[in-house]
Amino acid sequence: MSTKRIMKFEIYRYDPDKDERPYMQKLEVELQPTDKMLLDALVRIKNTVDDSLSIRRSCREGVCGSDAMNINGKNGLACITNLNDLKEPVVLRPLPGLPVIRDLIVDMTHFFNQYHSVRPYLINNTPPPERERLQSPEAREELNGLYECILCACCSTSCPSFWWNPDKYVGPAGLLQAYRFLADSRDEATSERLDNLNDPYRLFRCHTIMNCTDVCPKGLNPALAIGKIKEMLVRRAI
Amino acid sequence: MVAVKKSLPRRKFDVVVVGAGGAGMRCSLQLAQAGLSVAVLSKVFPTRSHTVAAQGGVSAALGNMSEDNWLWHMYDTVKGSDWLGDQDAIEFMCREAPSAVYELEHFGMPFDRNPDGTIYQRPFGGHTANFGEKPVQRACAAADRTGHAMLHTLYQRNVAARTQFLVEWMALDLLRNDEGDVLGVTALEMETGDIYVLEAKATVLATGGAGRIWAASTNAFINTGDGLGMAARAGIPLEDMEFWQFHPTGVAGAGVLITEGVRGEGGILLNKNGERFMERYAPTLKDLAPRDFVSRSMDQEIKEGRGCGPDGSYVLLKLDHLGAETIMKRLPSIREIAIKFANVDPIKDPIPVVPTIHYQMGGIPTNYHGQVVDWVNGENKVVNGLFAVGECAATSVHGANRLGTNSLLDLIVFGRSTGNFIVQQHLERQHTHQPIPEHAIDFSLDRVARLEARTSGERTQEVADGIRQSMQHHCGVFRTLKLLREGVDQIEQLAKQAEHIYFKDKSKVFNTARIEALELANMVEVARATINSAANRTESRGAHALSDHPERDDVNWLKHTLWYSDGNRLEYKPVQMKPLTVESFPPKARTF
Fold it and tell me: Which of B35, B78, B167, B297 has the greatest number of beta carbons closer than 10 A?
């Protein structure tokens, strides 16, 4: 005798071609024994219940950042969210605060514009040596907790300051990356980077609400990085 | 169709790059920096490309840990390829490796460091000192997130260079004129559902692999062989498609990759008797033998009843003896993966692993400049306007089996050199865009329109599942002619079914059902190429292990397979045994 494993979902749906307004679709899906993660269930829904459900997904192992969404009220990655940890009905909504393109797919333009705005690339105008630039293990360790960011946007879209000013406030992810370069011993643009963030909005809309750190699926700490940038600005001013 | 055609939006570029993974973005960087107008298409935001999931390292004979030499690297790669690799391309790759890696570091890639500040290098399968004498530390690593670090660094440099990306666009078909020149592509803008003609003086395919034709793979959903499908439909052959790498350590039941770097740091494989069985199969290199070797050994252990678990269906990867500190420092990412997907903390317990499809050695044939070549009258004939780089290309540096860390290297060396070649060619030719014949565009639009029009028929994922089950069953680690021939028939049947797929959702905006249906056509070409090529190679070489012909046969089979979609026909061309400047490495017995 086999027990059917049925799970209940409520999923945010919106097709701009058809729908006047978004709605929550209630559905049930029969899961297979191999379906362990939320993404497995979503793929099962697409293949057996409703092929019109549009989601972003790629690696299915939590490294690419495609399938970030709001799961039972908290942002996370569908592919590393275990189905056993989810209360039913599982309520899925798009990442908060960004315009919805369709269903669970949001327009990431503001998010990526903010990332680009911090000049997220190493700036070193000294001619490089023939081999690698040397960097001590201690200096390299400073990058831990920063370079691992997968740009999934769970943090920035859980931040009320980002919700209110996505075009002016850089947001946790962008600021974490700004700090990644501020902290890199090989970078020479410290002064300009700090200038770039020194206005009422870009950095200082952070009020240490801390949703970002709470929600990061990779265990990173944007709030701490932002604190370190503020500290650098203070030191510079003294 | 006429009305649609006339209103089809068109854009013109110097170069269109299809795919924004490591190879695509390394190539686009050269183009953007040279001031060419380039558009990089990607089905996903660039940093989502599957390069991001690569873990272990990128190889280069830097000699930071002990003496090393690019010639040893070249030898290891030739032997790793079981002598099917083209030695001119392999020499080029291994010789350029140090400069390509140093350049990445200058770009800001956060490599792990030694106490003296140099880049940390770890041991890796098949990489040896002094032509096979003992393992050498050649894999330059960023923890076990080397692919992530590399891809993000390359994207960052492209941001600095202001490269234009067309994000969430899917390329559909190559556009060729009657002389066979490639003049651009048709492409679907996923957000709007609009189809464009993108005219380009050079088109670079960098679409990665096609692991999703298999039931279990380490690959992402997006790896559906799109570039290969486009090339096959355009009459270009696919090379060496029978050679697919089963990575020894995919998490049993989940397929997620656990890097070879675990074994590089000292991890070992155990059977149910707690025996380190690789000592038997590869006395010198043991767990660091090349991947095809290790996968076969594991498969054998499982077949002979020494597998672990309730079904005896996997073996164990033990690394607790490395100590928590080393694991947290060098292998933090795979620890997370083991906890999430195998319910196991490797600091305490071994990880259940099985050979899992990982990499496609074959692909679109190119010379070492990245130019796509057809085989005409016994000669390589360049297809004007078309290039291919990365996993989708067969240069061929990996031959019948790829060494770990050589793929990330392949991406940056050939991404860069192909970009440079295109810049050089562009400066010399300075020609205008050639007119594209309407029938080329029609072919693409009609194909899509037929798919669109169907309101009943087969379901995309059912046909795709059929292909996946068939490939896994008929074309596994150990193959037999009987199974392969069954596979040929079954794939042909599934190919026919694929011509009748439909999807219910006909909306325009970000319609993923449509994307998946379009991907299926590409997967079908790859599956046909693979199974037909495999069923005809009556020898064992590298990753193609045929029980009916267990020996390598250099007399009859030292040649590349070329599969043509039209007529499902096979041709062969010789391996390039002559390197660029050094002595050739003649075929030898491949033991470890």
Answer: B78
* CB-side neighbour CA atoms (13 Å) of B322: 25
Per DSSP, which regions of B60-155 are E strands? 121-129, 134-140
Q: Which residue of B has its CA nearest to A35?
A: B254
Query: Letter for the amino acid at B430?
Result: Q
Q: Is B162 left (phi over 0), alpha (psi -120 to 50) or beta?
A: left
Beta-ladder partners of B573 = B560
Interface test with A, best of B145, B152, B212, B459 (most A CBs within 10 A): B152
DSSP B434: P
Q: How many CB atoms lie within 10 A of CB B138?
A: 34
Structure tokens of A177? 């990356």
Which residues partner with B315 through β-bridges?
B353
Task: Give yes or no for residue B98 having a pLDDT over 60.
Answer: yes
Which chain A residues touch B509 with a CB distance below 8 Å?
Answer: 15-17, 101-102
Strand ranges in chain A using DSSP code E only, listed in sequence order? 5-13, 23-31, 68-71, 74-77, 90-93, 100-102, 105-106
Considering all CA atoms of chain B, what is the largest pairwise distance in Å, rounded to the nearest integer?
70
| pLDDT at position B427 | 77
Q: Which ipTM did the prediction report? A: 0.97
pTM of the model: 0.96
Looking at residue B592, its pLDDT comes to: 87
What is the per-residue pLDDT for A55? 98
Cβ-Cβ contacts under 8 Å, B191 against chain A: 101
Work out whether strand B478-479 and strand B545-546 pair parallel, antiparallel, or are unpaired: parallel
Q: By the 8 A CB rule, do B354 and B477 touch?
A: no
Report CB contact under 8 Å: A63, B52: yes
Per-residue pLDDT band for B3 (boundaries 50, 70, 90) equals very low
What pLDDT is stored for residue B517 in this prediction? 97
| Cα of B85 to nearest chain A Cα, Å | 29
Tens of pLDDT, residues B502-545: 999 999 999 999 999 999 999 999 999 999 999 999 999 999 99
Are B204 and B423 contacting, i.e. CB atoms less than 8 angstroms apart? Answer: no
Contact A64/B53, CB-based, under 8 Å?
A: yes
